[in-house]
Amino acid sequence: MNVKQIKELLSQVDNPALLFNKLLILEYIDGFSQNQNLTEKGKDKKGKDKGKDKRDEDVKKIDYINKFKEKVQRPEPPPKVEGYAIEKFRLKTAYRLVIGAGYPSFIENGFMFHHVYGIPYIPGETLKGLARAVFIFSVAEAIKGKFDPSKIEEGLSEEAEGISYQIPEKISIILDNYTIENPVETFRKIFGSKKRRGQVIFFDAYPVDFNPSEHFEADIMNSHYGDYYQSGKAPADWLSPNPIHFLALKEGIVFEFNLGLAPLEPMEDNEEKLLLETARKLLEVGLKNFGVGSKKRKGYGWFK
Question: Do 139 and 65 reside in the same domain of the chain?
């Protein structure tokens, strides 16, 4: 199989990474199987079979591929992760969920699929940013608007002393009654700063049980004033609507969220559990009240 053929195959699938990394080997096996059917008609003047050496080589390769397939079908159990405290919880979508609508796509709106597993997921950096935003808004609420959120984030990330003195020793998470003690140090231990790494790891979130035929939904948004937005014309009632279809996940799909804590420095008793519990609370508040993905103001991306 040459590069031109591979390129043609990649243009015909929705998940090129899956085909390129996993399925091309099947085409390779088919090629070997065809070589096994060679007859002994090809011989040189001394009667030696010209195809024998190649067939022997092909048989060895097929045996190797079969062993590889058997290993993939019966994978070894993953090693246990030691030295990391883990916190996990599950929430389900309270309405439709759209992740990665701005990604490049053959259609108007893209969608985020895992490049290996091929299923929808929520990236860990998105979840970390959401929890971080909830923390900063909570600090802003505690100091009653003395600094805007961007200045608070800058002060906490750069470990500036000016803002730190203004933050109370205890704050409550917005839209929740959970109390965070020593919020400045807690923020830097969870999310890090320019001088230190954050210790809490926000892993990607995946659906607990995903069925493409049941959990996807074709959604639509209808721009009534396309000429107004694109050409500056008057937003009149006689302009033609422009329906745009896009892919969304249905309501009620359960996602599992996982947090880990890396032991980067010695901790006091119960501190690991407290940091993970705080990170979980921040993330839960964000998912239930702010949402993730696109069209959040329309109710998309919220969890319950």
Answer: no
Residue type, 286: G
CA atoms of 80 and 21, how far apart (whole Å)? 26
* Claim to verify: residue 95 and residue 168 sit in the same structural domain: yes
167 and 134 in a common domain: yes
Are 194 and 299 in contact, with CB atoms under 8 Å apart? no
Structure tokens at 232: 């500056």
**154 and 247 together in one domain:** yes
Contacts of 209 (CB under 8 A, 6+ apart): 254
- Residue 24 binned pLDDT confidence (cut-offs 50, 70, 90): low
The domain total for the chain is: 2
- What is the number of residues in the chain? 304
Q: Exposed/middle/buried for 9, CB within 10 Å: 0-12, 13-18, 19+?
A: middle
Q: Which domain holds residue 230?
A: 85-298
Could you give the CA distance from residue 67 to residue 51 in angstroms, rounded to a whole number?
24
pLDDT of 32 reads 42
Same domain, residue pair 44 and 97 = no
Q: Which residues are paired to 171 by β-bridges?
A: 180
Residue 78 lies in a domain: no
pLDDT at res. 7: 41
User: Are 61 and 203 contained in the same domain?
Assistant: no
Using the 8-state DSSP alphabet, how is residue 275 labeled? H
Tell me if 196 is assigned to some domain.
yes
Instruction: Dump pLDDT digits (tens) for 166-205.
Output: 888 999 999 999 999 999 999 999 999 888 889 999 999 9
Are 68 and 112 contained in the same domain?
A: no
DSSP letters, 80-95, are PP-S-EEEEEEEEBSS
Residue 161, SS3 per DSSP: helix
* DSSP-assigned letter for residue 76: P
Range 119-146 average pLDDT: 91
Q: What are phi and psi of 180, to 5 degrees?
A: -110, 120
Work out the number of other CB atoms within 10 angstroms of the CB of residue 143.
Answer: 14
